[in-house]
Amino acid sequence: MPLTNKLRMYEWLLFDADNTIWDFDAAEASALERTLVERDLEWSQEVLGTYRLINRAAWDDYERGLLPKDQLRDIRFRRLLEHYRHDHPAEAMSISYRTYLAASNHLLEGAREVLEAVSGRYRLGLVTNGLTEVQRPRLLNTGIEPFFEFIAISDELGVAKPHRAFFDHAHRQMGAPDPKRVLVIGDNPNADVRGALEYGYDACWLRRPGAANRKGLGETYRIRQIGELLDHLG
Length: 234
Prior knowledge:
alpha/beta, six-stranded parallel sheet
């Protein structure tokens, strides 16, 4: 439900990509399984869980500016291989994984319907902390690129959400509108919600099932499924 009763009239909706529009969890699991199985390495839900912890820690470091962009692609697999004491080239595994991930076409349930419903009523942008060689092909695979007037990818900008420089770029792409006429929708409390609010935008937190509750986050709206966004738009 909305955290405010004030009717807000937005001009721009900025959508995060992974686990907001795309079902990244499903795509990630499929890509990792294919990468490991083709090398005769163990695949299980436990391995997937370990990789997700390693991957999230790497992305958190990247978003905080603690991990250089050029290390992000391979370090996750280097750490996974070290954890299980496997001797395989991390670089080759990273390439395979990103190739499979780029070929995925998993959308969250209801995501396309939301984009269709808001298209024409609002101006749309896509703002994602992701890798170019993964995000660009998935935009084509899922056919959603035409919905967006601009697409901002951290890998191409050299800076990630929640850093102000990322939102500076997005703001210029929009023609510098009144910040209160911009709503950012995303699943990441730090990159999406905090980044948006600190820039002066409104923020809608998509708190997916299983995500920890975050009190005092300050989000303008909180939803559990992407389709609920339509309940908060005039």
